[in-house]
Amino acid sequence: MSDYPMLISNKLHSFRNFLVQIYCLGQVPPVCDSSSFDNVNKKDCVLYVPKGRLAAYRNAHVWKDFPMIVESDFSGIVEIQNSVRISGKEDRIIIDGITEGYVWIYDINGVLVKTLPATGERMEIRLQERGIYLVKYAGRTVKVKI
């Protein structure tokens, strides 16, 4: 992978509505047309960038519009979090022990309902409807019924 910017064009148009994660390996943020990610819900899309390059992406044209930018070493090695507890109670999902990255909650149809940064603290996420949800974190997915 090159350390130099590459051009990302608006040819992504047919996939933009489905993006929830982008892995950008460039040490220098790629040059993008300002309309490249027009149909991407940037507030729910996590942008992964190389360790030590967060500031470069936060200040780069187009990339700065993504509020969730996470540094990664892209090694493929994920720290296993043994103390994670996920349960459902009444109208909420309760999550304990997720310390890094983000938590994605999908309904049973696979529709993304919420995206939250992991806090390491107890998180109680209220949902409007009871049912079965999928909670995704750190490469794992857990089914929860509320």
Q: Would you write up a description of this structure?
A:
- This protein has 146 residues and is mainly beta.
- It contains 1 helix and 12 strands, in the order E-E-E-E-H-E-E-E-E-E-E-E-E.
- It has one helix at residues 54-58; strands at residues 7-8, 21-23, 31-32, 46-50, 68-72, 85-89, 92-96, 102-107, 112-117, 123-126, 132-137, 140-145.
- The chain has a 4-stranded antiparallel beta sheet, with no helix packed on it.
- It is globular.
Low-confidence stretches: none
Termini Cα gap: 44 Å
Shape: globular
Major beta sheet, strand line-up = 9-8-11-12
Summarize the structure.
This protein has 146 residues and is mostly beta strands. The protein has one helix and twelve strands.
Helices and strands, with pairings:
Layout (H helix, E strand, L loop, with lengths): L6 E2 L12 E3 L7 E2 L13 E5 L3 H5 L9 E5 L12 E5 L2 E5 L5 E6 L4 E6 L5 E4 L5 E6 L2 E6 L1
Parallel strand pairs: 1-3, 2-4, 4-5
Antiparallel strand pairs: 6-7, 7-10, 8-9, 8-11, 11-12
List the main descriptive attributes of the protein structure presented here.
146 residues; mainly beta; four-stranded antiparallel beta sheet; three-stranded parallel beta sheet; 1 helix; globular
